[in-house]
From TrEMBL:
InterPro entries: Dynamin_N, GTPase_Era-like, P-loop_NTPase. Coiled coil: none annotated. One of its GO terms (biological process) is ribosomal small subunit assembly. Residues 65-267 form the Dynamin N-terminal domain. It holds the Pfam family Dynamin_N. SUPFAM superfamilies: P-loop containing nucleoside triphosphate hydrolases. GO terms for molecular function: GTP binding; ribosomal small subunit binding; rRNA binding. This is Dynamin family protein. It comes from Clostridium magnum DSM 2767.
Length: 867
């Protein structure tokens, strides 16, 4: 034994006990607990328990050895050889569901400790949890059906089945053996005495029986044969390849915690380490950082079962190469080859079957005494080094925990102010970057959304109809009568009545139109403003869970308002834009009668504005004089406004509807055939911007002729006749339009006045109430159509609104960029500690208690210095 060990042991016992006393004292100090967080408290409790385990190990001098290996490599025989007694079951069967412990006892006996029902069910539920049983907490091993478990397993994918196979087998076996298992639960500890030479078999069934063993929590076999190594406890750990999932966990746990490990290998059948063994050994590092090679022994067992000496030597070489050279998990002097079976035979512990003779032929030893001596030597020398390292590591960790606590709390208030300033700068930079990123994203999103939704245009088109309601003859008659009554005249000429009536209607239109415009964007503005506001809050990482959320939100609203007030949306914005393209239209179409000198004069005054507006109606006239635009003819001569159709599909349907009016013709073909045949003509009408009504009226003349034909002739000529009449109608419309252009050319392309005079000369003045009603209603409808289809194109409300949004976003970004603006600096100064209140409150709480903490840390430092 190490001559200095007793002295060192007493020194370490003093250190460990003192360390635990210090921890206990610290926990009893009410002030000190206030500066130790829960994580550190839990760590200190774990270190205390470790110290207690070391104290117990030092006092008792205990030394734990774990026997590990694959199943059926002779681990139990090896264990029997170590204790020189046939106490462990050595047949080829499964081991207990917990490690079997071998230790010294004055009498040979087996202590069997059983699970309680509660403990067993808790372990069983952990298996169910790993097996993905949803309500695993409510299950009981005695009531769960095998059928349900099998159904869950069958529903798994093939890859899942591979990983869950062990768990499935465990659960199934427990349910199958539940009646046997139940008999032994809650039995506490049962002791069975073992007579030398007449070994009782009863206790072995708790190790080998598939069902009984599951009820066992712990098996301790005591042997008087271990009197020379009383301090050693040997654990027969389940095999690496055990099908039970619990065995794998137990093996890893023992490798990590044991003072020494004996790896038993069947040197005859499997001399080479398999991947499972290697992974467990390399990954299951010692809990205290001790390298595996410092505490691993390897015993190549069953060498006597090799066919011949050459096979034996070859296999021994393979094993040593793997262990020593390839994986470097053991030292060469700790790799021994032999046979536990031979040792048991030679010592008359089991009957001989001739294996010892075979070993003699190989000129080899059983090596049991040799490995026992190696373990004793290790126990008396190296194990002290390992134990010392473990204790030192635990004490060092304890000091580290306390030193960290002391360092964190021995801080002056100036340090906290500096920490707060540094945090503030860091968060300001983060906020600036976040806002820029989020607002640029918002800009792109809103552009796409505003254009796609087209809500301003939709709202305008839906509401502009309300500015003018068609008048009736009765309304005009009553109005004229009322005017005659008020002026005390006998009659009111139609011309004067037209003027007077239009003046009233104009007043109503001018009154109604602003209402339409001002309500266009009210709802949309709120939605888009809220979106920008929320994006700003997202960039600040502020959610409603923040206790200052409402205050921060108000502050953000105020900041945005202060920055964007000059470019924020105003109801007047749209009014200004739309009025620019609308007021003259209302004036000329509603206020002044058709063909009147006033309408002509109004045109001359606002002539250029009308030309500009006309370009938004039909771009195909851009290469002709402005005064020849169709819109000018609508305004001055009340010609029909040929609205630009959305596509030739609309025109195609109009042609089809014309054919449908003549069933005898239409019913000759199905609708799809008609559409297909009419398509080239609708496309030509659309491309040439021809008046569809003119074309249809020409076609209708021919349809009347077809309708009177006999059936046979109709069927033979109808389609060709319809297509011919369409071509003729299109040619007529085109030539008629071309004729107008030629007439204009004859007047002189630069002779605008003559063209306008000619246009006005064609206008017929309204001479009856009926004509006035018709004239005013056409002007009113033309006004609405122009507003919906021309003015809207010119105003482009979505673009105008988006321009406002973009200006607002860019102004905000400019103000926050590089933190240059006074407004943004004030905003941050007012809100940053609210936005990240958790971080700042933590610093301030520590700062406010820094003096107290320093005092506690000083007191703590004095106490800890004794460790």
């Amino acid at each position: 034994m190490n001559s200095n060990w007793e002295e060192k042991k007493m020194n370490y016992l003093t250190k460990l006990e003192n360390c635990n006393n210090v921890i206990e004292k610290v926990f009893s100090m009410e002030k000190s607990i206030s500066i130790i967080d829960k994580q550190a408290q839990e760590k200190l409790r774990v270190l205390t328990e470790n110290n207690k385990a070391f104290i117990n190990k030092l006092n008792k001098g205990t030394f734990e050895v774990a026997m590990i290996g694959l199943e059926n490599v002779g681990k139990s025989s090896f264990g029997n050889a170590l204790v020189k007694n046939n106490v462990l079951p050595s047949k080829a069967s499964r081991c207990t569901y917990t490690s079997t412990q071998l230790e010294y006892g004055e009498e040979d006996a087996a202590e069997i400790e059983f699970y309680s029902t509660e403990e067993f069910n808790e372990n069983f539920r952990e298996l169910l949890k790993d097996f993905k049983v949803e309500d695993f907490r409510a299950e009981d091993f005695s009531t769960l059906s095998i059928h349900r478990v099998e159904m869950l397993y069958d529903q798994m994918s093939e890859s899942e089945k591979v990983f869950k196979q062990k768990i499935f087998s465990d659960i199934k076996e427990i349910i199958e053996g539940k009646d046997i298992i139940r008999k032994f639960l809650d039995k506490g500890i049962e002791t069975i005495y073992i007579n030398r030479g007449e070994v009782e078999q009863d206790y072995k069934s708790f190790i080998t029986d598939n069902y009984k063993s599951r009820a066992v929590k712990k098996v301790i076999i005591k042997s008087s044969e271990l009197k020379d190594t009383k301090e050693i406890k040997i654990y027969d750990v389940p095999g690496f390849d055990s099908p039970a999932i619990l065995h794998e966990k137990q093996t890893i746990e023992k490798i990590q915690n044991a003072d020494a490990i004996i790896l038993i290998i069947d040197v005859c059948k499997n001399p080479q380490l398999n991947i499972n063994q290697i992974q467990v050994l390399l990954n299951a590092k010692d809990r205290d950082g001790i390298p595996i090679e410092e505490k691993l022994f390897v015993f190549g067992n069953k060498v006597d079962t090799c066919n011949n000496i050459m096979d034996a030597l070859n296999n021994i070489e393979i094993l040593k190469n793997d262990v020593i050279e390839v994986y470097r998990i053991a030292k060469s002097q700790r790799v021994l080859i032999g046979s536990a079976q031979v040792y048991l035979e030679e010592n008359y512990i089991i009957p001989s079957d001739g294996t010892k003779e075979k070993l003699k032929l190989f000129n080899m030893k059983d090596s049991i005494e040799e490995i026992k001596n190696e373990i004793k030597e290790y126990c008396n020398t190296d194990r002290f080094y390992i134990l010392q390292n473990r204790i030192d590591k635990n004490l060092d960790e304890t000091r580290e925990v306390f030193n960290k606590i002391i360092a964190e709390n021995n801080v002056s208030s100036e340090t906290f102010y500096r920490e707060e300033q540094e945090l503030s700068e860091e968060l300001k930079n983060k906020i600036i970057q976040n806002i820029k990123v989020e607002l640029l994203k918002a800009e792109d999103y809103l552009k796409e959304k505003i254009y796609n939704d087209n809500n301003f245009t939709k709202n305008f088109r839906a509401s502009v109809e309300s500015i003018f309601k068609p008048i009736t003859k009765e309304f005009v008659t009553n109005y004229i009568i009322e005017r005659i009554r008020k002026t005390s005249t006998r009659e009111l000429p139609i011309g004067r009545g037209n003027y007077s009536l239009r003046e009233k209607l104009y007043s109503e239109v001018r009154e109604n139109f602003p209402k339409v415009i001002t309500s266009l964007a009210d709802e949309e503005v709120v939605i888009y403003y809220e979106y920008i506001l929320n994006k700003f809050l997202e960039a600040l990482e502020v959610s409603k869970s923040n206790k200052y959320y409402n205050n921060i939100k108000k502050s953000v609203e105020s900041f945005i308002e202060s920055i964007t007030s000059q470019v924020s949306y105003d109801r007047k914005n749209f009014s200004t834009i739309i009025d620019h393209f609308s007021i003259d239209l209302m004036d000329i179409l509603i206020n002044y009668p058709l063909g009147s000198p006033d309408r002509k004069n109004k045109f001359k005054v606002a002539e250029q504005d009308f030309y500009n507006l006309a370009t938004y109606y039909d771009h195909s006239f851009n290469n002709k004089p402005s005064y020849m635009h169709p819109l000018i003819r609508v305004i001055l001569a009340q010609e029909s406004l040929n609205e630009v159709e959305s596509s030739d599909e609309v025109l195609n349907n109009k042609l089809l509807n014309t054919i449908k009016k003549y069933p005898t013709v239409y019913n000759l073909y199905d609708e799809e055939t008609w559409k297909k045949e009419l398509r080239p003509f609708s496309t030509e009408i659309y491309n040439k911007k021809l008046n569809i009504n003119t074309v249809i009226s020409r076609v209708a003349l021919n349809m009347d002729t077809l309708n009177g034909m006999d059936e046979a002739r109709l069927k033979a000529t109808a389609l060709m006749s319809v297509k011919g009449s369409l071509k003729a109608a299109i040619d007529y419309s085109g030539n008629n339009f071309a004729g107008e252009e030629v007439a204009a050319d004859n007047i002189g392309i630069n002779n605008k006045d003559e063209y306008i005079e000619k246009l006005l000369a064609e206008v017929k003045f309204s001479e009856t109430i009926e004509e006035v009603v018709n004239e005013i209603n056409i002007d009113g409808q033309n006004l609405i159509n122009i507003l919906k289809n021309v003015t809207l194109n010119a105003a482009f409300l979505e673009k105008a609104f988006l321009s406002t949004i973009n200006k607002q976003i860019n102004l905000i970004i400019d103000k926050i960029d590089a933190n240059q603006s006074l407004e943004f600096r004030n905003f941050l100064a007012e809100n940053i500690d609210k936005i990240y209140y958790n971080k700042f409150e933590d610093i301030r709480n520590r700062r406010d208690t820094s003096e107290t903490r320093q005092e506690i840390a000083k007191e703590l430092s004095q106490v800890v210095s004794t460790i």
